[in-house]
């Protein structure tokens, strides 16, 4: 199983995204870490990821995250 960031983190309310793709790394046992997420402002963000098993069709997941304002 592999996982990749498929597009930039996105703020749908503001219609813009972050400037860099996050880094996805395998932690073993089907567990993954995501780092380098550029949440540069508070608000509602979407983080899309692509899951690819060793055999079979790819699948995608999107995490919805609310970052509080300072």
Q: What is this structure's SSE topology?
A:
Blueprint: E1 2-5, E2 10-11, E3 16-17, E4 23-28, E5 31-35, E6 43-52, E7 59-67
Antiparallel strand pairs: 1-6, 2-3, 4-5, 6-7
Explain what this protein looks like in three dimensions.
This protein is an all-beta fold. Helices cover 0% and strands 54% of the residues. The chain contains no helices and seven strands. It has strands at residues 2-5, 10-11, 16-17, 23-28, 31-35, 43-52, 59-67. Strands 1-6-7 form a three-stranded antiparallel beta sheet, with no helix packed on it. A two-stranded antiparallel sheet has the order 2-3. Strands 4-5 form a two-stranded antiparallel sheet. A hairpin with a 2-residue loop joins strand 4 (23-28) and strand 5. It is elongated. The protein starts with a strand and ends with a strand. The mean pLDDT is 89.
């Amino acid at each position: 199983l592999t996982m990749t960031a498929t597009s930039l983190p996105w703020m749908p309310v503001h219609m813009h995204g972050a400037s860099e793709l996050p880094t996805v790394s395998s932690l073993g046992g089907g567990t993954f870490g995501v780092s380098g997420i550029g949440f540069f402002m508070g608000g509602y963000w979407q983080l899309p990821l692509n899951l690819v098993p060793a055999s079979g069709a790819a699948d995608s997941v999107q995490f919805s995250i609310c970052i509080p304002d300072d």
